[in-house]
Protein backbone atom coordinates (compact mmCIF):
# COMPACT_ATOMS: atom_id res chain seq x y z
CA UNK A 1 0.00 0.00 0.00
CA UNK A 2 2.84 2.37 0.69
CA UNK A 3 3.40 3.14 -2.96
CA UNK A 4 -0.24 3.29 -3.98
CA UNK A 5 -0.74 6.18 -6.35
CA UNK A 6 -2.46 9.12 -4.72
CA UNK A 7 -5.03 10.56 -7.07
CA UNK A 8 -4.80 14.29 -7.62
CA UNK A 9 -7.87 16.06 -6.25
CA UNK A 10 -10.36 17.23 -8.82
CA UNK A 11 -11.11 20.93 -9.12
CA UNK A 12 -13.82 22.34 -11.37
CA UNK A 13 -13.42 25.88 -12.72
CA UNK A 14 -16.44 27.33 -14.49
CA UNK A 15 -14.46 30.00 -16.34
CA UNK A 16 -11.11 30.77 -17.86
CA UNK A 17 -9.26 33.19 -15.58
CA UNK A 18 -7.40 36.37 -16.61
CA UNK A 19 -4.15 35.65 -18.43
CA UNK A 20 -1.59 35.42 -15.61
CA UNK A 21 -3.95 33.79 -13.15
CA UNK A 22 -4.96 31.28 -15.81
CA UNK A 23 -1.32 30.35 -16.43
CA UNK A 24 -0.83 29.85 -12.71
CA UNK A 25 -4.02 27.81 -12.41
CA UNK A 26 -2.71 25.40 -15.04
CA UNK A 27 0.48 24.82 -13.05
CA UNK A 28 -1.31 23.58 -9.95
CA UNK A 29 -1.03 19.91 -9.15
CA UNK A 30 -4.74 19.20 -8.98
CA UNK A 31 -6.78 17.69 -11.77
CA UNK A 32 -8.36 20.71 -13.39
CA UNK A 33 -11.70 20.38 -15.14
CA UNK A 34 -12.32 23.76 -16.71
CA UNK A 35 -15.09 25.10 -18.92
CA UNK A 36 -13.05 26.42 -21.84
CA UNK A 37 -15.54 28.87 -23.34
CA UNK A 38 -15.89 32.52 -22.40
CA UNK A 39 -19.50 31.92 -21.40
CA UNK A 40 -21.67 30.40 -18.71
CA UNK A 41 -20.84 26.75 -18.09
CA UNK A 42 -24.00 24.83 -18.99
CA UNK A 43 -25.79 23.71 -15.89
CA UNK A 44 -26.01 20.02 -16.84
CA UNK A 45 -22.28 19.97 -17.64
CA UNK A 46 -21.48 21.56 -14.29
CA UNK A 47 -23.80 19.13 -12.50
CA UNK A 48 -22.00 16.18 -14.01
CA UNK A 49 -18.42 17.52 -13.81
CA UNK A 50 -18.80 18.48 -10.17
CA UNK A 51 -19.28 14.83 -9.12
CA UNK A 52 -16.40 13.88 -6.86
CA UNK A 53 -14.73 17.30 -7.05
CA UNK A 54 -12.90 18.62 -4.00
CA UNK A 55 -12.79 22.22 -5.14
CA UNK A 56 -15.00 24.54 -7.18
CA UNK A 57 -13.99 27.87 -8.67
CA UNK A 58 -17.08 29.76 -9.80
CA UNK A 59 -18.38 33.17 -10.74
CA UNK A 60 -21.60 34.97 -9.96
CA UNK A 61 -23.55 33.67 -12.94
CA UNK A 62 -23.23 30.14 -11.58
CA UNK A 63 -25.99 29.06 -9.28
CA UNK A 64 -24.33 27.27 -6.39
CA UNK A 65 -27.46 25.85 -4.86
CA UNK A 66 -28.38 22.77 -2.86
CA UNK A 67 -28.74 20.62 -5.98
CA UNK A 68 -25.24 21.46 -7.15
CA UNK A 69 -23.56 21.15 -3.76
CA UNK A 70 -25.20 17.79 -3.26
CA UNK A 71 -24.32 16.62 -6.76
CA UNK A 72 -20.68 17.19 -5.82
CA UNK A 73 -20.83 14.52 -3.15
CA UNK A 74 -18.99 14.38 0.15
CA UNK A 75 -15.53 15.24 -1.19
CA UNK A 76 -16.23 18.91 -1.83
CA UNK A 77 -14.09 20.93 0.58
CA UNK A 78 -13.93 24.40 -0.87
CA UNK A 79 -15.94 26.68 -3.12
CA UNK A 80 -14.44 29.99 -4.14
CA UNK A 81 -16.24 32.63 -6.10
CA UNK A 82 -14.40 35.18 -8.20
CA UNK A 83 -16.45 38.01 -6.72
CA UNK A 84 -17.01 39.87 -3.49
CA UNK A 85 -20.74 39.09 -3.64
CA UNK A 86 -21.86 35.61 -2.64
CA UNK A 87 -25.64 35.81 -2.94
CA UNK A 88 -25.47 33.09 -5.61
CA UNK A 89 -24.16 30.55 -3.08
CA UNK A 90 -26.46 28.56 -0.80
CA UNK A 91 -24.54 29.11 2.42
CA UNK A 92 -26.88 27.01 4.56
CA UNK A 93 -26.15 23.92 2.49
CA UNK A 94 -22.45 24.75 2.29
CA UNK A 95 -22.32 25.01 6.07
CA UNK A 96 -24.21 21.80 6.58
CA UNK A 97 -21.72 20.03 4.35
CA UNK A 98 -18.71 21.65 6.00
CA UNK A 99 -17.59 23.41 2.86
CA UNK A 100 -15.27 26.38 3.13
CA UNK A 101 -16.34 29.37 1.06
CA UNK A 102 -13.84 31.79 -0.43
CA UNK A 103 -14.45 35.14 -2.15
CA UNK A 104 -12.46 38.14 -3.37
CA UNK A 105 -13.06 41.23 -1.22
CA UNK A 106 -10.86 44.36 -1.09
CA UNK A 107 -9.02 43.90 -4.36
CA UNK A 108 -11.97 45.11 -6.41
CA UNK A 109 -12.95 47.98 -4.13
CA UNK A 110 -11.15 50.69 -6.14
CA UNK A 111 -12.33 49.40 -9.50
CA UNK A 112 -15.94 49.16 -8.37
CA UNK A 113 -15.91 52.52 -6.59
CA UNK A 114 -14.44 54.18 -9.70
CA UNK A 115 -17.20 52.74 -11.85
CA UNK A 116 -19.88 53.70 -9.36
CA UNK A 117 -18.67 57.29 -9.50
CA UNK A 118 -18.66 57.11 -13.28
CA UNK A 119 -22.30 55.99 -13.27
CA UNK A 120 -23.28 58.69 -10.80
CA UNK A 121 -21.54 61.38 -12.85
CA UNK A 122 -22.88 59.99 -16.11
CA UNK A 123 -26.46 60.06 -14.84
CA UNK A 124 -26.04 63.50 -13.26
CA UNK A 125 -24.56 65.01 -16.42
CA UNK A 126 -26.86 63.34 -18.95
CA UNK A 127 -24.05 61.48 -20.58
CA UNK A 128 -26.29 59.08 -22.47
CA UNK A 129 -28.20 61.88 -24.21
CA UNK A 130 -24.95 63.78 -24.72
CA UNK A 131 -23.16 60.95 -26.48
CA UNK A 132 -26.19 60.18 -28.56
CA UNK A 133 -26.67 63.82 -29.54
CA UNK A 134 -23.02 64.20 -30.51
CA UNK A 135 -23.16 61.09 -32.66
CA UNK A 136 -26.50 61.53 -34.38
CA UNK A 137 -26.48 65.16 -35.45
CA UNK A 138 -28.60 66.63 -32.67
CA UNK A 139 -25.52 68.61 -31.66
CA UNK A 140 -26.12 72.14 -32.88
CA UNK A 141 -24.85 75.52 -31.76
CA UNK A 142 -23.99 76.01 -28.06
CA UNK A 143 -27.23 76.45 -26.17
CA UNK A 144 -27.58 77.76 -22.60
CA UNK A 145 -30.40 75.41 -21.67
CA UNK A 146 -29.32 72.23 -23.38
CA UNK A 147 -28.36 69.02 -21.52
CA UNK A 148 -27.99 70.67 -18.15
CA UNK A 149 -27.47 68.30 -15.25
CA UNK A 150 -26.36 68.60 -11.67
CA UNK A 151 -23.05 69.07 -9.88
CA UNK A 152 -21.72 67.84 -6.57
CA UNK A 153 -20.46 70.79 -4.55
CA UNK A 154 -22.43 71.28 -1.38
CA UNK A 155 -24.64 68.26 -2.03
CA UNK A 156 -25.69 65.36 0.18
CA UNK A 157 -24.77 61.79 -0.68
CA UNK A 158 -26.80 58.89 0.68
CA UNK A 159 -24.96 55.59 0.71
CA UNK A 160 -27.03 52.46 1.06
CA UNK A 161 -24.35 50.06 2.19
CA UNK A 162 -21.27 51.62 3.75
CA UNK A 163 -18.84 48.74 3.56
CA UNK A 164 -15.52 48.84 1.75
CA UNK A 165 -16.97 49.89 -1.59
CA UNK A 166 -19.48 52.33 -0.11
CA UNK A 167 -16.74 54.11 1.83
CA UNK A 168 -14.52 54.28 -1.24
CA UNK A 169 -17.38 55.85 -3.22
CA UNK A 170 -18.01 58.39 -0.46
CA UNK A 171 -14.32 59.34 -0.37
CA UNK A 172 -14.28 59.89 -4.12
CA UNK A 173 -17.45 61.96 -4.14
CA UNK A 174 -16.20 64.09 -1.24
CA UNK A 175 -13.38 65.07 -3.57
CA UNK A 176 -16.05 66.22 -6.02
CA UNK A 177 -17.45 68.54 -3.37
CA UNK A 178 -20.13 66.48 -1.62
CA UNK A 179 -20.21 67.92 1.89
CA UNK A 180 -22.58 65.63 3.73
CA UNK A 181 -22.70 61.86 3.69
CA UNK A 182 -25.59 59.87 5.10
CA UNK A 183 -25.49 56.10 5.24
CA UNK A 184 -27.78 53.23 6.00
CA UNK A 185 -26.73 49.67 6.59
CA UNK A 186 -26.77 46.84 9.06
CA UNK A 187 -25.15 48.87 11.80
CA UNK A 188 -23.61 52.20 12.65
CA UNK A 189 -19.86 52.35 12.12
CA UNK A 190 -18.17 54.19 14.98
CA UNK A 191 -15.01 54.67 12.92
CA UNK A 192 -16.98 56.91 10.54
CA UNK A 193 -17.94 59.38 13.25
CA UNK A 194 -17.35 62.91 12.03
CA UNK A 195 -17.28 61.82 8.36
CA UNK A 196 -20.67 60.32 7.75
CA UNK A 197 -23.99 60.14 9.58
CA UNK A 198 -25.87 56.92 10.20
CA UNK A 199 -29.43 57.58 9.06
CA UNK A 200 -32.76 55.84 8.69
CA UNK A 201 -33.64 54.78 5.16
CA UNK A 202 -36.42 57.36 5.22
CA UNK A 203 -34.15 60.25 6.13
CA UNK A 204 -31.54 59.16 3.63
CA UNK A 205 -34.05 59.01 0.78
CA UNK A 206 -35.58 62.38 1.63
CA UNK A 207 -32.39 64.34 2.18
CA UNK A 208 -29.93 62.97 -0.37
CA UNK A 209 -29.15 64.47 -3.77
CA UNK A 210 -27.32 61.29 -4.75
CA UNK A 211 -28.52 57.90 -3.56
CA UNK A 212 -26.03 55.14 -4.21
CA UNK A 213 -26.53 51.43 -3.56
CA UNK A 214 -23.36 49.53 -2.63
CA UNK A 215 -24.90 46.97 -0.29
CA UNK A 216 -24.92 43.19 -0.33
CA UNK A 217 -28.08 41.52 -1.61
CA UNK A 218 -29.78 40.02 1.45
CA UNK A 219 -33.40 39.46 2.50
CA UNK A 220 -33.26 42.95 4.07
CA UNK A 221 -32.06 44.71 0.92
CA UNK A 222 -34.07 42.77 -1.66
CA UNK A 223 -36.29 45.23 -3.58
CA UNK A 224 -35.47 47.92 -1.06
CA UNK A 225 -35.80 50.48 -3.84
CA UNK A 226 -39.45 50.31 -4.76
CA UNK A 227 -41.93 52.93 -5.91
CA UNK A 228 -42.43 54.21 -2.37
CA UNK A 229 -38.70 54.67 -1.95
CA UNK A 230 -38.32 56.55 -5.23
CA UNK A 231 -41.29 58.71 -4.30
CA UNK A 232 -39.52 59.77 -1.12
CA UNK A 233 -36.46 60.94 -3.05
CA UNK A 234 -36.04 64.48 -4.34
CA UNK A 235 -37.19 64.94 -7.92
CA UNK A 236 -33.66 66.20 -8.63
CA UNK A 237 -32.07 63.09 -7.12
CA UNK A 238 -29.76 60.74 -8.99
CA UNK A 239 -29.83 57.04 -8.13
CA UNK A 240 -26.90 54.72 -8.82
CA UNK A 241 -26.66 50.97 -8.27
CA UNK A 242 -23.49 48.93 -8.52
CA UNK A 243 -24.62 46.33 -5.99
CA UNK A 244 -27.12 43.80 -7.32
CA UNK A 245 -30.07 44.31 -9.61
CA UNK A 246 -32.44 42.70 -7.13
CA UNK A 247 -32.04 45.49 -4.56
CA UNK A 248 -34.29 47.42 -6.95
CA UNK A 249 -37.87 46.61 -7.82
CA UNK A 250 -37.15 47.25 -11.43
CA UNK A 251 -40.62 47.93 -12.77
CA UNK A 252 -40.95 50.56 -10.04
CA UNK A 253 -37.72 52.20 -11.16
CA UNK A 254 -39.04 52.32 -14.73
CA UNK A 255 -42.17 54.03 -13.48
CA UNK A 256 -40.25 56.44 -11.26
CA UNK A 257 -38.04 57.49 -14.17
CA UNK A 258 -40.96 57.78 -16.58
CA UNK A 259 -42.83 59.94 -14.09
CA UNK A 260 -39.71 61.99 -13.33
CA UNK A 261 -39.95 61.18 -9.63
CA UNK A 262 -36.15 61.28 -9.74
CA UNK A 263 -33.83 62.97 -12.23
CA UNK A 264 -31.87 59.98 -13.42
CA UNK A 265 -30.33 56.61 -12.72
CA UNK A 266 -27.03 54.86 -13.39
CA UNK A 267 -27.05 51.08 -13.21
CA UNK A 268 -24.27 48.55 -13.47
CA UNK A 269 -26.57 45.74 -12.37
CA UNK A 270 -30.08 44.76 -13.43
CA UNK A 271 -32.55 41.88 -13.31
CA UNK A 272 -32.07 39.82 -15.28
CA UNK A 273 -28.52 40.03 -16.58
CA UNK A 274 -28.11 40.54 -19.44
CA UNK A 275 -31.04 42.94 -19.55
CA UNK A 276 -33.05 42.22 -22.74
CA UNK A 277 -32.27 44.92 -25.30
CA UNK A 278 -35.94 45.78 -25.68
CA UNK A 279 -36.33 46.49 -21.96
CA UNK A 280 -38.08 49.80 -21.18
CA UNK A 281 -35.08 50.98 -19.12
CA UNK A 282 -33.03 51.18 -22.33
CA UNK A 283 -35.62 53.48 -23.86
CA UNK A 284 -35.27 56.05 -21.10
CA UNK A 285 -32.98 59.00 -21.72
CA UNK A 286 -32.40 59.45 -18.02
CA UNK A 287 -31.08 55.95 -17.38
CA UNK A 288 -27.47 54.96 -18.04
CA UNK A 289 -26.86 51.22 -18.06
CA UNK A 290 -23.57 49.35 -18.04
CA UNK A 291 -23.22 45.56 -18.32
CA UNK A 292 -22.01 44.63 -14.79
CA UNK A 293 -18.42 45.77 -15.22
CA UNK A 294 -17.79 47.27 -11.78
CA UNK A 295 -14.73 45.13 -11.07
CA UNK A 296 -13.62 44.96 -14.70
CA UNK A 297 -10.09 46.29 -14.56
CA UNK A 298 -7.08 44.21 -15.55
CA UNK A 299 -5.57 44.89 -12.14
CA UNK A 300 -8.58 43.79 -10.12
CA UNK A 301 -9.43 40.75 -12.20
CA UNK A 302 -5.89 39.31 -12.12
CA UNK A 303 -5.74 39.52 -8.31
CA UNK A 304 -9.27 38.14 -8.05
CA UNK A 305 -8.09 35.14 -10.07
CA UNK A 306 -5.01 34.79 -7.92
CA UNK A 307 -7.01 34.83 -4.70
CA UNK A 308 -9.30 32.12 -6.08
CA UNK A 309 -6.31 29.88 -6.79
CA UNK A 310 -4.95 30.44 -3.29
CA UNK A 311 -8.39 29.79 -1.81
CA UNK A 312 -8.61 26.49 -3.66
CA UNK A 313 -5.11 25.26 -2.81
CA UNK A 314 -5.56 26.04 0.90
CA UNK A 315 -9.04 24.57 0.94
CA UNK A 316 -7.82 21.29 -0.55
CA UNK A 317 -5.32 21.08 2.32
CA UNK A 318 -7.99 21.91 4.90
CA UNK A 319 -6.17 25.12 5.72
CA UNK A 320 -7.60 28.56 6.31
CA UNK A 321 -8.31 30.30 3.00
CA UNK A 322 -6.58 33.50 1.89
CA UNK A 323 -10.01 35.17 1.74
CA UNK A 324 -12.40 33.00 3.65
CA UNK A 325 -15.99 33.94 4.27
CA UNK A 326 -16.95 33.68 7.94
CA UNK A 327 -20.46 32.45 7.81
C1 LIG B 1 -18.77 41.02 -7.33
O1 LIG B 1 -17.57 40.87 -7.12
O2 LIG B 1 -19.62 40.63 -6.54
C2 LIG B 1 -19.17 41.75 -8.57
O3 LIG B 1 -20.50 41.77 -8.79
C3 LIG B 1 -18.41 41.24 -9.75
O4 LIG B 1 -17.09 41.55 -9.57
UniProtKB/TrEMBL annotation:
InterPro entries, alphabetized: D-isomer_2-hydroxyacid_DH, D-isomer_2_OHA_DH_cat_dom, D-isomer_DH_NAD-bd, NAD(P)-bd_dom_sf
Residues in D-isomer specific 2-hydroxyacid dehydrogenase NAD-binding domain copies: 119-294
Molecular function GO terms recorded: glyoxylate reductase (NADPH) activity; hydroxypyruvate reductase (NADH) activity; NAD binding
Protein name in UniProt: Glyoxylate reductase/hydroxypyruvate reductase
Entry-linked Pfam families: 2-Hacid_dh, 2-Hacid_dh_C
Family from the record: Belongs to the D-isomer specific 2-hydroxyacid dehydrogenase family.
Record's keyword terms, sorted: Oxidoreductase
Keyword Oxidoreductase: yes
Signal peptide range in chain numbering: none
Superkingdom of origin: Eukaryota
The species this protein was found in: Circinella minor
Domain D-isomer specific 2-hydroxyacid dehydrogenase catalytic: 12-324
GO CC term (a single one): cytosol
Amino acid sequence: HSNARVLAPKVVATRVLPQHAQARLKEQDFELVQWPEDSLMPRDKLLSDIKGAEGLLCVLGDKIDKELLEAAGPNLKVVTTMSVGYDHIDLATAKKNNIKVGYTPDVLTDATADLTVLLTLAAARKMKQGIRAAENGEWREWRPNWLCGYQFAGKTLGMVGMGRIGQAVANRLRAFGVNRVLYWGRSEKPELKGQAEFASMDQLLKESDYVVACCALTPETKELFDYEAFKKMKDTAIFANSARGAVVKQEDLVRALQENLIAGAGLDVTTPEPLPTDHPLFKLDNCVILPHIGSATIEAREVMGDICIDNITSGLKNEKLRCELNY
